[in-house]
Structure prediction request, 225 residues.
Amino acid sequence: MDSVRWQVFPDAATVAGETVRRVLAGAERAIAARGAFHLVLAGGSTPERAYRLLADCDSNWAHWHIYLGDERCLPADDPERNSLMIARAWLDSSPVPGENIHWIPAERGAEQGASDYQAIIQAVLPFDLVLLGMGEDGHTASLFPGQHHDPTRLVVPVHNAPKPPPERISLTVTALCQTRELLLLVTGAGKNPALRRWRSGEPLPVATLECEAGVDVLLDQAAAA
Prediction:
């Protein structure tokens, strides 16, 4: 917990605005230092609000590379896919080059899609910034309580997820923590019980994010209450 930095903001809109500020600043630093910005995105309503804000921002988009922390094993055009939500909220109207957007091929099935994405992720680590959310059960990406995954893997198939759809693909904690910066967005009163459990020391999936860079948790008042 010492490496977790908690910051509380008035509401979800302010959390989204702060997220965008940090993402743009991270991009500027990464591009200046290494010529590229490798960013991992999350699903969820609070990240979606940030993506809509990013659609109106300026950056050196040609040097951005986009990845996903997890995806649902559904057809590529299914509205429940994280990739479709992100595309509609931001990337469909963004000048980020299409070849720089690396979606998880979850339509190939959990096993094959995870294997194929592992090869992509392995070649780019460490990331510059990872964006995550937390579910009301303390899960993050598609890493759920009570499930165990091979810690030597960067990307794993997820079967029997406790929320639909049951088949998913997720980056592991091993991959997610190989980053220069990690932002965890937690908003809404529904997240408060899991947040309390995490802070009391329960071994929730979100609590396993032990990154050398630390974890910045951006909370709204409702979640932090």
Remarks:
- The beta strands are 4-9, 37-41, 64-68, 70-72, 129-133, 155-158, 168-171, 182-186, 215-220.
- The longest helix spans residues 12-34.
- The radius of gyration is 16 Å.
